[in-house]
Description:
Layout: E1 5-9, H1 13-25, E2 29-33, H2 36-46, E3 50-54, H3 62-71, E4 80-84, H4 89-97, E5 102-105, H5 110-131, E6 135-137, E7 140-143, E8 148-151, E9 154-156, H6 160-170, E10 177-178, H7 179-187, H8 195-209, E11 216-219, E12 223-226
Parallel strand pairs: 1-2, 1-3, 3-4, 4-5
Antiparallel strand pairs: 6-7, 7-8, 8-9, 10-12, 11-12
Amino acid sequence: MAKEHILVVDDEEDICELVRYNLAKDGYKVECIGTGEQALKMARSKLPDLIVLDLMLPGIDGLDVCRALKLDSKTSHIPVIMLTAKGEEADIVAGLELGADDYVTKPFSPRVLVARARAAMRKATLAADEDDATVKIRDLVVNPARHEVLVRNKPIELTHTEFSILHFLALRPGRVFTRYQIIDGVRGEEYPVTDRSVDVQVAGLRKKLGPCGKEIETVRGVGYRFKE
Length: 228
């Protein structure tokens, strides 16, 4: 069985070696690089199973790398763990809103990082079949493999977060979700994202969907659901 391939992006050699050693000891194939430009090139050519990405990089910073990866249909499925000295909530939320799957702040426990890496790849594997399923409901088509949404056969451009929320709800028509269940379902558990941010995302999503915006219903006092 082939080993999972992990790409580590950090311009600090000692950090790279620490991460590489601990992940390799756990059985993973690990490659380390030091710039955002190299990260994008290698991610697109080798399609790793996970990317551990520092936010503070020379040249293209980590947030821009994450944005580029998640906007590219070839690499958007690759889970990303942010590894950074920035512990401020705003930086964490910014990365998660761009599509990062998890974060670990420096200084960090190598055992915690390995556990987070294992969990991120396991979650991506378990979700692969569901995430590849195209949803067709009335005038709306959501195709995750192509990261494409069609309303009455017309393509609609959505952000990564808007797309994730739409697909999450559309896969489960009729079921009501609280704002925090939506956060957990789209981003994973225990992220510093507020319920207000879900309202903002849904409002923008409805506007972009036009006539299909009404498919996302507000359940007063609870949350949201996709029409059954």
